[in-house]
Amino acid sequence: KLLESGGGLVQPGGSLRLACAVSGFTFSSYAMTWVRQAPGKGLEWVSGINDSGGYTYYADSVKGRFTISRDNSKNTVYLQMNSLRAEDTAIYFCARVSSRNFERGWFDSWGQGTLVTVSS
Amino acid sequence: DIQMTQSPSSVSAAVGDSVTITCRASQGRTSWVAWYQQKPGKAPKLLIYAASNLESGVPSRFSGSGAGTDFTLTISSLQPEDFATYYCQQAKSFPLTFGQGTRLEIK
To answer: Per-residue pLDDT tens for A79-102?
Structure first.
């Protein structure tokens, strides 16, 4: 089970930190990822992190503004979002990757998502 | 970046019909393609991975094929619960990318 939290309304230029708490599998054995979906739009991959947290990956649209991290002692993955823009408005899903470091980079378990709205 | 182009963007079909959705990668040769189903207000669900492997628990009426740059998802004998939006995704290289989606509607 994956449960996202931390979404909400934020002004342009503001920050939010999303969290995804995991249960039911060995968290430290899997890479994790964030995928977002703007209202009425398709899926957009945002960021990923390997099992140990030593490797991180980002979409160009968020590079330099978002930071992914994980705490394997807390079975939680985070997405720190800074300098938020209106175009970051979306439902943010966390998902489990089918491997330790994206060798098999598909997503076999998903949370229900948390809505981030960037608006003044 | 690898662009994934899905077609059609929408399709209408009846219960019992068979439907095929295609996805074309803009570059590279890979079998690292996955397919997902998403219903309104729900998270996506993995159906097919590595182009042709059925995820555990997914009905056998779903099948995937292809290699290189062209991939297909086929749903045979459509059931009422299959009407949803379908996405392909390439897992060959970063940034990981999705197709734009195909909406499957009831005729």
So the answer is: 999 999 999 999 999 999 999 999
Any B CB within 8 A of A39 CB: no
Q: A52-82, pLDDT tens digit by residue?
A: 999 999 999 999 999 999 999 999 999 999 9
Strands (E), A59-105: 66-71, 76-81, 90-97
Instruction: Give yes or no for residue B59 having a pLDDT over 90.
Output: yes
Per-window interface: A 79-98 vs B, CB < 8 A:
93, 95, 98
**Do residue B43 and residue A110 have CB atoms under 8 angstroms apart?**
yes
Q: Phi and psi for A86 in degrees, rounded to 5?
A: -55, -35
Residue B100 in contact with partner chain A when CB distance is under 8 A: yes
Which residues of A are less than 8 Å from B101 in CB distance? 42-43
User: Is A81 within 8 Å of A16 (Cβ atoms)?
Assistant: yes
Q: Are A16 and A34 in contact (CB under 8 A)?
A: no
Binary contact (B42, A102; C-beta < 8 A): no
Per-residue pLDDT, averaged over B69-98, amounts to: 96
Alpha carbons B46 and A46: distance in angstroms, whole number: 18
